[in-house]
Structures are given as C-alpha cells and as structure tokens.
Amino acid sequence: MIDFDVLIIGASAAGLMCAIEAGKRGRKVLILDHADKAGKKIRISGGGKCNFSNYEVSADHYLSDNKHFCKSALSRYQYYDFLSLLANYNIPWHEREHGQLFCDRSANDIVQMLLSECNKYSVTLQLNATIKTIHHHLSINCFQAFSSAGDYQAQSLVVATGGLSVAKMGATDFGLRLAQQFSINVIATRPGLVPLMYNDKDRTRYQQLSGIALFAELSYGNQVFTENLLFTHKGISGPVVLQISSYWQAEQAQSIHIKLLPELDLYEWLIQQKAKQANLLVKNILAQKLTKRLVECFCFLHGIDKAIKHYHDNDLQKIADMFQHWHFWPDGTEGYRVAEVTVGGVDTNELSSKTMQAKNQSGLYFIGEVLDVTGHLGGYNFQWAWSSGYSAGQFV
Fold it and tell me: What number of other Cβ atoms are within 10 A of residue 189's Cβ?
C-alpha cells in the first residue's frame, strides 16, 4: 500500500487542476485514471481548439437543483485566472461570438500546460489504472484504493471522473456509484448539449431538410436561446438545439417552441408583400427570406400553393405561424453517445460549496462534471472544471 496525501480519481480538466493546486501546497498527490492519456475530453473539445472559458461566466449559465452552489467556486477562480496561466506558457488564444474563448493552435496546448504544471509540483500520474475497490479505513482515517496498477491510500480522496457523456472516450458512472457507496444522493442524470430526434411523423415530413442551417429562436419553459439550428436526417441540432436540449425532459411532455426568422415579424412582412407582389406565389415570396428547400417543404405539407393575393390576412397569420410558432415534439435525444455533457449528478446539497467536500464524509471531495452542475454551451463547463478543481485543491 503506497501512501499519498491526496488521491484524485480522474485525469480530467477538474482533476488536473485540483492536483496542481494541491501540489502547490506541498501535498503529495496521485492521479489515477483508467484511460491511456490524460485530459482526453480536453483534447477533442471545440473541434480540437478547446473552448476553455467564456467572458460572460455567471451562475445564470448553469443548471443545478441547487442553483447557488456554483457561485462560490466561480468567484474564486475566474476566466482571467486561467488566462494568466495561459500567458505563463505563451499559449495564444482568441475570442469568438458570445464571449467564447478558444486556443489559437490546439487543445493539446492546454493539456501539455496542465501536465507541465503537474510535473512542476511533483504530481504522480498513473494511467491505465482500473480501480477495483475504494473504501474508507476508519481506524487510520484514510481512503484506500485497490487498482490494476497498484494499491494506494491517502487522507483525501477527490472524485473527478466526469459524467456519462462521450462514452467512446471511456466515460463511466464510476463517480456516481462511488457517491452512492458513501451514502451521498445522486440527482437523476440525462444527456445534455445533445441533438434532438424526430418523432416518426416528423421524420417523414422533415428528413428531406437534412443539411439546412438557419438562425432560430428556441424556447422551452422560461428558457430562450437564439442561435443557429441545423436540420439532420435524425432530427435537429446546431448550437441553439444543444442549448435547449439540456432543459428538455421527455417526462414533462412539453413541446419546444421554434421561431424561424426571429428578427422579423413574418406576418407583418407578408401583409406588406401582399400589397407589393400580389401575383407572386407565397412560396416564392417566402423564399426571399428562407431557404427554398425549407419553404417548399412547409408549403407542400400545409397545402400553400397559390399567389399571395388569394390569401386573407388571417390565412397569412397561419402561414407565418407555420414558421414562427412551430411546436416541435422530440422523440428523445441522440443520447450520451454524442452528448457533450451530463445533466444531473452528485447532489450538491450534500457538499460544501467552498471546499467541495462531502458533508457526511470528511476527506471526500467531488469536482467537475460528476456534480449536478451543468453549464451552457460556450466554455462554461470547462470553467466549472477549473473553478471547482481549484477550490478543492485549496483544502485537500
């Protein structure tokens, strides 16, 4: 049994950050991970450029049953703290729309930076280590982990195993099972930031639209997002769909409201065109604002095949509603296979928001995506990883 001060399960963004901070304090740290590389999710994120944070980070950009939990960590380690770390390694970055921050070159720059920091503070990284069992040895007040790479014990155990998303990267429910082992509640999980699937009826209607992308406003409950929507052969995707998907729940039996051309009052515009272009077919008028293939599909489905002069104003309102009050009923999501994050996780009501330590088990910490804290698309989830990892690293 090899002794360490801190044992971190998961060489994730949060796990690596926690290891660095604990190492800075002179703690002897071991990271165990079953993967063959550290930071695998970092490496593939943002199309290989890693959307590592956002200028607009606030608690409003996170989902959780305990909405205030994330505030403490986010306030103690902010985007500019991470930018300062990048500057130390001369890693170039740039801002994109909506305050999103990306690497100029490659996500591997960030992985190598984190590994260099771990090395600087003598963190031990053990990959290809499958954990068999973990338990708390009460008499000596330490955690013991038995793995394929060896047996270890430490005063502090940090769970940074991530969620269930991107299963091809080796995601498992290990962290959730470990929480339950220590009698910590787990909020039911579901895929987040994930494409939505057509029901059978809509698949027949709209499959022909695959490949079309356009600006749209989607709303569900009191959540509203406006960004690009992409039609696929399975359903709808694109940034605006990924955002709303984290809130959509099948058991609530509610539709998602889709508004195409959100910047335009389509009804008023059609009234104006009726006065200007009375002899034109409605579909040709609509094609001035929307993709022709989409217009032809919608008009065919609703029997709109005449010149605009043949439609009364109330008919034009119904035509406008086809595009701006579309109630979309998903048949489900594409699941964890393609989901970017996991909604739900370890119940944050059972942890300290300052230290990330479990209230019922001294020395046990949970950080990152394994927690019931899920960010919007746009770098928010990585910022949560840095912030929660940093916070725990001050106390382990």
Answer: 18
Return the closest-CA partner of residue 24 out of 36, 14, 16: 16
Residue with tokens 């009726």: 274
Q: Would you state the torsion angle of the CA atoms of residues 128, 186, 382, 228, taken in this order, to the nearest 10 degrees?
A: 120
Q: Quick check: 376 and 54 in contact, CB under 8 A?
A: no
Domain CATH for 275? 2.40.30.10
Residues 58 and 161 in one domain: yes
> Is 16 in the same domain as 34?
yes
Lookup result for tokens 């002179």? 26
| Domain carrying residue 108 | 2-190+342-393
168 and 226 together in one domain? no
Asked whether residue 183 falls in the same domain as residue 311, the answer is no
Rounded distance between C-alpha atoms, residue 263 and residue 266, angstroms: 9
- Please give the average per-residue pLDDT across 165-174, as a whole number: 82
Residue 380: band (very low, low, confident or very high) from pLDDT cuts 50, 70, 90: very high
| Average pLDDT over all residues of the chain | 96
Gap between the terminal Cα atoms of the chain? 20
Indicate which CATH number applies to the domain containing 28: 3.50.50.60
CA dist., res. 342 & res. 176, Å (int): 12
Instruction: Let me know whether 162 and 34 are in one domain.
Output: yes
Tell me if the pTM is above 0.70.
Answer: yes
The total number of structural domains that make up the chain: 2
Read out DSSP for 218-285? EEETTEEEEEEEEE-SSEEESHHHHHHHTT--GGG--PEEEEESTTS-HHHHHHHHHHH-TTSBHHHH
C-alpha dist (Å) from residue 21 to 6, 14, 386: 11, 11, 10
